[in-house]
Write a structure and sequence with these properties.
The chain has about 180 residues and is α/β, with parallel strands linked by helices. α6 links the parallel β3 and β4. The longest helix is centred in the middle third of the chain and has 26 residues.
């Protein structure tokens, strides 16, 4: 089982990543030699067990996101529900009623259990996030392991980046 601290203490893990990617096709994450060494120790049976671990971290972060939204009383549809309703692109959470975060209106939230460097964020924008924005309006992307601060420059285009669940969320009235 994955420790929930993985999702709540992103900054302590961000030092494992760097901006220079390892050879293409090996992994979509950008890792330091220290991280790769730790992976060989923790996952001696190869890439499949590492992939399974990273997937479980991602699922746990998504679970933490939905748990916190439920605690706030926010109504939402998760990715499975959106897929069942045949949306062509599905964020992890589509809020039924928008929320405000630091004065920014948020209609959907995408959870990313990784560090967001420039290449990663630009790829997510192209492959997923523009689709979400075009379908649902502005949204929030949480890079649980941190992100390059200079990349948080897309708010006017409808994207807010954070590295943790927001400390302050204003629930809007559904009436």
């Amino acid at each position: 089982m994955v420790d929930t601290a993985l999702c709540s203490s992103a900054h302590s893990y961000s030092g494992l990543y760097q901006s220079d990617p390892i050879p293409s096709g090996v992994c979509s994450l950008h890792m330091t030699p220290l991280f790769l060494y730790c992976c060989t120790v923790l996952f001696p049976h190869g890439f499949d067990s590492l992939t399974e671990f990273l997937s479980s971290v991602g699922l746990r972060c998504e679970q933490q996101l939905t748990e916190k939204l439920r605690q706030l009383g926010a109504s939402f549809s998760d990715e499975e529900e959106l897929q069942a309703r045949q949306f062509p692109s599905t964020p992890d959470v589509k809020l039924d009623v928008p929320v405000a975060i630091n004065g920014f209106v948020v209609n959907w939230i995408e959870s990313k259990a990784m560090f967001g460097d420039e290449q990663t964020i630009l790829g997510h924008l192209q492959d997923q996030l523009w689709n979400y924005r075009n379908l649902f309006g502005p949204g929030l992307v949480i890079y649980w392991f941190g992100f390059v601060d200079d990349m948080n420059c897309y708010q006017k285009q409808g994207f807010l980046l954070m590295d943790q669940f927001p400390a302050s969320i204003v629930l809007m009235d559904s009436a």
